[in-house]
Amino acid sequence: MNLRGLTWDHPRGYQPLEAASARFGELHGVEIGWARRSLKEFGDTPIDTLAGDFDLLVIDHPHVGIAAQCDCLVPLDSLLDQATLATLSAESAGPSFDSYRYGARQWALAVDASMQTSCFRPGLLPVQPPRDWPAVLDLAAVLRRRGRWMAVPLVPTDAVCCFLTLCAGAGGGLREDADFVAPRVGLHALRLLRTLALAAHPASLSWNPIELYEAMSGSDEIAYCPIGFCYSNYARNDYRSRRLEFADLPGGRGSLLGGAGIAVSKSCREPGVAAAFAAWLCSAEQQRGLYVDAAGQPASRSAWLDERANSLTNGFFSGTFATLRHAYVRPRDHGFVAFQEYAGRRIHDFLTTAAEGNATADATAEPAADPAAVARGESDAESDAAACFADLAEAFRDRRVSRSW
Fold it and tell me: Considering 63, 206, 224, 244, which has the largest number of Cβ atoms within 10 A of its Cβ?
């Protein structure tokens, strides 16, 4: 028996699945092959365009609203017994399991858990990782004086994810049943994100988390990242020449939940077998054993607290578990993925405009700044933030009737 699956193209995304599939095949005589797609495609490509070609899909939880509307996945509560689902729910790392439940159906099982945390190079920080955002900006200034940088992954997808985290951390997480976040919350998040972008490494606007962590682990230029989706691979001793450490998000709460779930396609030839593999893969025993051993980042609570898993990753899991426990789950209705893609582009444009304006101001600055010019610059910046917020709010309200803006 052969099954075909689709995952994302990073060792964390495919190595544990390939190892688990080989073991499951030995036990049950099932061959499961895995194709890969890019990280951006994983986050942005609607699953209804992929489900017809695969038996198993590794998906991002914001896509479950599309799954519910387009009938492209088999609800796992129709394939697995309630006792199995209850056990997996009780074992969930933070809200991972529940993030794949939508419209009273379980569309996927959480196989990988992630969220936005801070990250730093051991030995390069002059202080402990900051616990709030003013301290982050203070550290960024200290690092520059020492010839190093803070950096933030701010490609469009990560720009909107950072915005959503900052809103949730301020007590105003975006909800599916709301018009949008409150202006006070949204404008605060945009201003803080702009301030972080202006203080960050110049390449931040072109980096996703993987690209940033590759830069951090490849030289001593970047010492700290305050917000980005965490990757336990970089905390392992032998993954790169320089090891990274991860810590809780500044502020501790509101971190946007990431991770991945495993789903069964409606076109699957053997849905019962596929669901059995998914349940076996997501069990606590496999998550803290084979899955972690194969460089996976599990979605099982016991794996995150497991002594051996933390030994392999230099305390990655236990050191960030508090942030995961309090992670924020973004809206998951059928229009949200398209909104998220638009919002990422719009926020990225807003940040790019600010960076370009700052570079121009630095290039033309005179020894004594003109107070009137400074006031005009601040006024323009506030106008840009207000315009960005208005565009985002309008797109969020229209997301259920339009997939493009």
Answer: 63
As a whole number of angstroms, the distance between CA 224 and CA 197 comes to 13
227 and 164 in contact (C-beta within 8 Å)? no
**Distance between CA atoms of residues 332 and 99, nearest Å:** 9
Rounded CA-CA distance 21/8 in Å is 15
C-beta separation of 57 from 278 below 8 A: no
In terms of C-beta density within 10 A (0-12 exposed, 13-18 middle, 19 or more buried), how is residue 232 classed?
Answer: buried
Q: Measured on CA atoms in the order 396, 399, 403, 404, is the torsion positive or negative?
A: negative
- Are the CB atoms for 160 and 343 separated by under 8 Å? yes
Q: What is the pTM of this model?
A: 0.93
Q: How far apart are CA 103 and CA 92, in angstroms?
A: 19
* Interval 193-240: pLDDT, tens: 999 999 999 999 999 999 999 999 999 999 999 999 999 999 999 999
CB 118 within 8 A of CB 192: no
Question: How far is Cα 390 from Cα 145, in angstroms, rounded to an integer?
Answer: 37
pLDDT tens digits for 13-58? 999 999 999 999 999 999 999 999 887 887 677 788 888 899 999 9
Residue that the structure tokens 């990782």 belong to: 129
